Amino acid sequence: MRILNGSCLCGKVGIEVPDDFDYMGNCHCSECRKFTGSDYSSVGGISSSKFSFSKGEEFVSIYPKSEETELAFCQCCGSSLFSRKITGGKHNIRLGILDSTPTHKPNFHIFVASKAPWLDINDQLKQFEQGPVK
Questions:
Q1: Checking DSSP bridges between strand 41-47 and strand 90-94, what pairing results, if any?
Q2: Model pTM?
Q3: CA 99 to CA 9: how far, in whole Å?
Q4: Cα–Cα distances in angstroms (integers) from residue 96 to residues 36, 99, 101, 102, 134, in the given order
Q5: CA-to-CA distance for 121 and 39, rounded, in angstroms?
Q6: How far apart, in whole angstroms, are the C-alpha atoms of residue 122 and residue 110?
């Protein structure tokens, strides 16, 4: 399995994940928009057991967003790195931090009902008003 590398803007934090995402998509919820500072957040979900730091874990700050979700960012440069679903056992990696190109691309949009009002989604990817149907 090919390993993907990622890093924050200042390069102090490095991550490694296998090129084996369970899903890749674009989240338009207001919380992801605030955490990333952009119109939406492109993420790849992977089992937490497959995630590792290659360097700089000591530079990562964790914001406990809820009982289920932690948000991680570099305390030096502020780069949004990932969210971790505690009981779900998933890391949602912010795809923008990847230095390697994954095999697949995001293939859906979620929480489009709360997307940024200035954003028009012009691709043909599947859209969900809220989260995906389970």
A1: antiparallel
A2: 0.90
A3: 11
A4: 10, 8, 10, 11, 26
A5: 11
A6: 14
